[in-house]
Batch of 4 targets.
Target 1
Amino acid sequence: MRQIIAAAVLSLAFFSSGEGFAAERRVTLRVENMFCASCPFIVKQTLARVPGVSEVDVSYEQKSSVAIAVVVYEDSETDIAALTAATSDVGFPSTVIQ
């Protein structure tokens, strides 16, 4: 009986911490105002600094004013609003495309 109670208490502590429901997410962003070769680097570094982001890939192959950024992040640490705000804060507005 004590083991059952101990297991229940442990389970309750784990699930109430919120960490039991965290998940890795991937989002694709359309990033605007790309006008030079250093723009993708700036966007990548900006997104990489957002807490919870584990991977960033910025594609600027078309050399247009728009780039595509694929971001992998932990949803318990950040969200899409924080990612788009980070790029907008450095002059590169972004929106979700996938």
Note: Residues 53 and 73 are 4 Å apart (CA to CA).
Target 2
Amino acid sequence: MKSVLVTGANGQLGQCIRKIAPKYSHIEFLFKNSKELDITNIAMVNALFESNKFDYCINCAAYTNVEQAEKTPAIAFQVNADGVKNLAMACKNNQVVLIHVSTDYVFDGEKNRPYTVEDTPNPINEYGKSKLLGEEYIKQHLDSFKIIRTSWLYSEFGENFYQTVLRRAKAGEHLHITDEQIGCPTNANNLAVHVLDFLEQNLTNYGIHHFTDGEVMTWYEFAEKILSENNLGKGVKLVKDKNYRTFAKRPVNGVII
């Protein structure tokens, strides 16, 4: 039986993995939230790895507040880079395969075509820079790893675009949504299945990979889809807004394949 550590277990991906974990009977999971395992605390990380025999570590721990990362980048780098480095080193010392979730924000969004794993990253905000440095640390310390870049992640858990649109629509608010950016909304439940299938099937296609649900749309189009799926289209005023109110620069093209 494989033993798998899941960090960031209270995040949306962590909760999606926890939800389907019982279906993977040949995998023994240990879920740790940020209080139970602070990945920025190297002593805590090392102690956990040394007292357990893990085969894999799925790192769902991340600082994902893009706006706040721009204002206080040190916090983002502490979690997304230094914390990831701690995990990578612990995985190396204990022969553990690291599966790490990254983002389309490692790219600048200036290309007029989808980004592939062969494209050179060039992040334009602090969040993207911190995530890219985390990737670099993994590549420096490990041979057996899988970095999965995804985009526009949403689920029924936590705060995300899908839940925000749904909540505001049900409250009768007018929705001003930009159509200036394109990407591929990705259900975290589908990403969870992708990750656990990789483990169960004993795959060894390590390295950097891209995973999305594949459908390209703007934020405005995504909002339209959310309203339609929940039969809210007729009662909500959805306004196309070209001025995306944001402090952090964001990639105009976030499509990854």
Note: The first helix runs from residue 12 to 20.
Target 3
Amino acid sequence: MPDVISDTSPIQYLYQVELLDLLFRLYKEITIPQAVETELAEGREHGVRLPSTGQMSRFKIGIAPLEETLKLPTSLGRGEREVLALASVTPDSLLLLDDALARQHARSLGLRFTGTLGILLKAKQSGFKVAIQPVLDELEGKGFRLDRKTRAAVLKLAHETQP
């Protein structure tokens, strides 16, 4: 099973729709770089509903190499840069990224990735009882950006129809 390295967004959104446990049911261990742990802590301090410190103990903290982090563009967030840097020294890793620019950089570096929607689809395909359509509705209500074409494609892959 590949090492799984997550950015902030998949953790945030899965937690907010009460599906964070899917990560640990699908993947043995989830690594987050220090910057992601910091972003989650700062979000909690600002009142954003995010996993508590105790819940975060289920994640392994990975140290992103500074020289790899510095090679990445500053147009990416700190968490995304550290996720990409950590993955660059972790062969065969799988990244959990939602940000389009971060995914573009991951693709250019030849890194494998999925995101919140991919996790939901994998959970459904793995036999977990996840109804995708109501989760998409809830995610969008929480600010998750999802265009209509992507929504329709996800529902089709999940064998759910869009009303």
Note: The chain has a mean pLDDT of 91.
Target 4
Amino acid sequence: MAEVSILASSDCAAETAKEVVAVRGLAKRFGQRPAIVDVSLDLQPAEVLGFVGPNGAGKTTTLRILAGLLRADAGEGHVLGHDIMSGGPVGRLVGYMPQKLALYGDLSVAENLRFRADVYELPHPKRAVAAAIEDFDLGPFRGQRASSLSGGWARRLLLAAALIHRPTLVLLDEPTAGLDAESRQDVWRRIAGLAARGDSVVINTHDLAEAEQCGRVALFSRGCVLALGDPHALAETAPFSVVVIGGGDVHRAARLLDAMDGVMATYVHGQRLRVLMRPDALARVRARAEAAGLQAEDTPKRLEDAAFVLVKESLPGRGEA
């Protein structure tokens, strides 16, 4: 398994001075349902950290705890020097963009931004609103109701509202969900700009190709962080091999290889088949493919592959990941 960076129990307070976020063993339940059971991670200044993993793995709950919107039931840690278990004023120090559009639909773009500026008690709210409108190209929509904006412009307004007080820690929950390619790139340009000026960003995303742009990723599963590290290194060190199969009917190839011992998954990509397997199955897969007149080629591992393998191997009855 890829190396997991975990803080020792005595390290959280010691790391406060240099870590933007340092938490260990966070747990949270909603009634009888555990949302997170063991979340340990850190975030460095000017770093972009991606939260990845399946639905219900605990990513959004963790973001909300870091934002000061939820109190963890157990664990320890600090966000921007504040003890998250004591309920300190973390919320005013971070910029949080939720997945759902948390805007006042009957208010205009400018009014929504002014409301957010007043919430943060900015000394010059009119100036802050004007700067946000200019920075996010919202001028043509200044007087338009938020409820009438398209999905892309509504998310742009939500991001502008999250950043209006110029926080040094920005938490983004699925900021590119439902956006077109140009809008997605605009979001990532802004994320890169935040990091370049020294701010730290945590982004929750289901797009594993997108997550590869992060400096590090935290892979969540069943309320725990399975792995934390560079996305490319995590993919390379995960315990699996991968080949692409071509030169024939990919659906026939999938039927041929799916049932083999050691094959973990197959994916049809256009005219080729991507095969994930345990390393000791590589020679057998190659031999069977070649015997069927197919071509097996090496291909780089991807974060998406590694996430699938590590999550699958962490499930009960699968042994240690």
Note: Confidence is low (pLDDT under 50) at residues 1-16.
